[in-house]
Amino acid sequence: MPDLDAVATALGLTDQRAALAAGWSEHGAQLGEGVPSFLDAEAIATAARRAGLAAEPAAVLVEGLAALRTLPALGTLAAHARSLVLARRLAPDGGGWSWPLPSADLHPAAPLVYAWAVLGCVDDLFARNRERGIADGVTAAGLRDLGRWMEEYRRAKGHWGFDRMGWLWCQLAGSLHELGRLQYNLAHWEARVRVLRHRRDGRLAMLMEGRLDLRGDGQWQEVARTPRDPAGFTTVFSEGPEGWRGHAVDGDGNAARQPSAFAAADWEQVLGRGDPVLFLHIPAGGGLDADACRESLRQARDFFPRHYPRHAFKAVISISWMFDSQLARHLPAESNLVRFQRLFHLHPHPDLSGEQIRERVLGDAKADPARLVPATSLQRAVVGHLLAGGYWKQQGAVILPDEIV
Ligand SMILES: CC(C)(COP(=O)(O)OP(=O)(O)OC[C@H]1O[C@@H](n2cnc3c(N)ncnc32)[C@H](O)[C@@H]1OP(=O)(O)O)[C@@H](O)C(=O)NCCC(=O)NCCS
C-alpha cells in the first residue's frame, strides 16, 4: 500500500493529510505501486470520448499523463479517489470527502487529478446505469458536467483543472441525471415549509413550519450580510386532526405576517419533511427556453419512476438565485428567467447573502457592484438593485408531479 505521508508530501497536501486519510486504509490495498491501468493514455482518451469532452480538454488530459512519470503520487491520488467513488457508490450522499486538490505550481497537470479519477469511473457508470435500464445517451449527458466544470475552472484560474469532484460524485453515484435542458438528483425535502393542497380545487398552500425568525417582507431574518430587519416577526405553526395553522406563502414566495387556518376537511398534506423529491439543477449555458424546460420536466416525471421506483418523489424542487421573485420586477415578463420562475411555487430560503447571484451573474461571489460595468440587462438589474440598497437572495421552488404538463 502506498505510504499516505509520502503521497501527501509529494503533492504538497500535508496540511490536508486528515482529509486524504479518510478511506485510505480501506481502499489503499487496491492502490498498486505502479501507474494504475485506467491512467493509460488510450484508456483516458477513450473515456474522454465517452464523457463527451471537447478535443482540447481531452488532449490536455491525455498529455498531462506525462506528469505521472515524475510525480507518481498523482496517479495514487487519482486511484484513491476512484476507489472511494466505486466503493461508496451506493451511498449517494455527496461523497463526504473534501477532495484536496494539488496545485498547478507542482506541475501544470496536477489540478487534473480528479478529472482522471472521473474518467476512470466512466466504464463502471455506463455499465451500472445500463443495469437500471438507463440509455447510454442519458449517462453521456450527465457526464457533460466534467467538461463544463473544467472549462469553468480554466475561466476562473487561467489554466486547466477540475475541482468539482464532490459534485461529479452525484453523477458517478448514479443519483443525478441530465434530462434535456435540466439536471435532477435524488433528494429529500428539508425546507421548513409544509405544502398542502386543497382537496377540491387543487390550490396549493405553503406554510412556514415552526417558530421562525422572519423579516417584515416575509423572508428569513437569518441574513449573512444584510442588517436585521426591525420590522421582522416570529412565525407560529401548529397541526392536529383538525388541520393546520401557520403563515402562508404568497405567489412571490413571501410569508404572510398573520397566520391562517387550513382545515383538514378542505386540505391535505402533499409535501413534508423527509419526503423523497427530485432536486433540480440548471446547468450554465444554452439559454433557458421555457419549452425545453417543460419538456425536461416531463422527461423527469417519467424517467425516475421507471428507473428509481423506490424513490417515489413527491415534488421537483430547487433552490437558486434564479427563483428570487424580485427578478420579475426587473426583467421583462417574457424573459426566459421570469417564465421559468412561473412554472414553480416559490418559498423563502435562509440565504440572503446574494453571493450566488454575484457569482453566477457578475462572475464573482464577492463582486463589488460599484466597480462593475454591467453588460446585460440582468447584470444592470442586479447591480442597480444592490446600489439602491436592495438585497438578492436564493429562493426555493416546488412543482408537484401532476402539475408538470
Ligand atoms: C440560466 C441561464 C441559462 C438563463 O439565461 P437566459 O436564457 O439568457 O435568460 P433570459 O433570457 O431570461 O435573460 C434575460 C437577460 O439576462 C441576461 N442573463 C441571463 N443570465 C445571465 C447570467 N448568468 N449572467 C449575466 N447575464 C445573464 C441575458 O443575457 C439577457 O440580457 P439582455 O436582455 O441584455 O440580452 C443563465 O443565467 C445561466 O447560464 N446561468 C448559469 C447557471 C446557473 O446560474 N444555474 C443555477 C445554479 S443555482
Task: Describe the structure in your own words.
By secondary structure, this protein is of the alpha+beta class. The chain folds into 2 domains: 4-174, no CATH class; 177-405, Aminopeptidase. The protein contains 16 helices and 14 strands. It has helices spanning 4-10, 17-21, 24-28, 41-50, 55-63, 67-70, 72-87, 113-120, 122-131, 136-157, 165-172, 290-307, 327-330, 336-341, 355-362, 377-387, and strands spanning 176-179, 182-188, 193-198, 204-208, 213-214, 233-234, 237-240, 243-246, 260-263, 267-271, 276-281, 316-320, 345-348, 395-399. The chain has a 6-stranded mixed sheet with strand order 1-2-11-12-14-13. Strands 4-3-10 form a 3-stranded antiparallel sheet, with no helix packed on it. The longest helix is centred in the middle third of the chain and has 22 residues, at 136-157. The model has no long low-confidence stretch (mean pLDDT 92).
SSE run:
HHHHHHHHHHHEEEEEEEEEEEHEHHEHHE
**What do the pLDDT scores average to?**
92
Shape: globular
**Main sheet: strands, sense, barrel:** 6 strands, mixed
Distinct bound molecules: coenzyme A
Beta-strand proportion = 15-25%
- Walk across the major sheet and give the strand order: 1-2-11-12-14-13
Kindly report how far apart the N and C termini lie. Answer: 55 Å
Number of strands: 14
**How many domains make up the 3D coordinates?**
2
Helix and strand content put the structural class at alpha+beta
So what's the CATH class of the largest domain? Alpha Beta
User: Roughly how many Å is the radius of gyration?
Assistant: 23 Å
Low-confidence stretches are: none
- CATH fold name of the largest domain, please? Aminopeptidase
What is the annotated CATH architecture of the largest domain? 3-Layer(aba) Sandwich
Measured as a percent range, the helix fraction is 25-40%
**How many helices in DSSP terms?**
16
